[in-house]
UniProtKB/TrEMBL annotation:
GO BP: any one term: DNA transposition
Protein's recorded name: IS transposase
Top-level lineage group: Bacteria
MF terms (GO), sorted A to Z: DNA binding; transposase activity
Residues of the Transposase IS4-like domain: 15-98
Pfam short name (any one): DDE_Tnp_1
Length: 105
């Protein structure tokens, strides 16, 4: 006897499990490593006191640099838009402008 019907439809594209996780020393915990291993995700986490995290920085810097470029657009930084469709449209325009600027240099 079910009072609530099961949810059958999904909205948006199906999410994919990442193959690798790059993280710094702040995430070096056995429980987290075990959780990732159980989900078949390769963990690239610098170990505290053993490994330097400089090598991991080259992967993380790309994401941080891209977020910095997107934060340069004030409309995205302040989140003026209420509807997510409008916000995503402005994010797409910002990404197109960033690519155009990089390609015309």
């Amino acid at each position: 006897m079910r009072s609530i019907p099961p949810v059958r439809s999904r909205r948006g594209p199906r999410r994919r499990r990442p193959a690798k996780l790059h993280a710094d020393k702040g995430y070096d915990y056995g429980d987290l490593r075990g959780f990732l291993r159980g989900r078949s995700i390769v963990a690239r986490i610098a170990r505290r006191g053993v490994e330097r995290s400089d090598r991991l920085g080259r992967h993380r810097w790309v994401v941080e640099r891209t977020m910095s470029w997107l934060n340069g657009f004030r409309r995205l930084h302040r989140r003026y838009e209420r509807k997510p469709e409008h916000f995503l449209a402005f994010a797409g325009i910002a990404a197109a402008l960033i690519c155009h600027r990089r390609l015309t240099k």
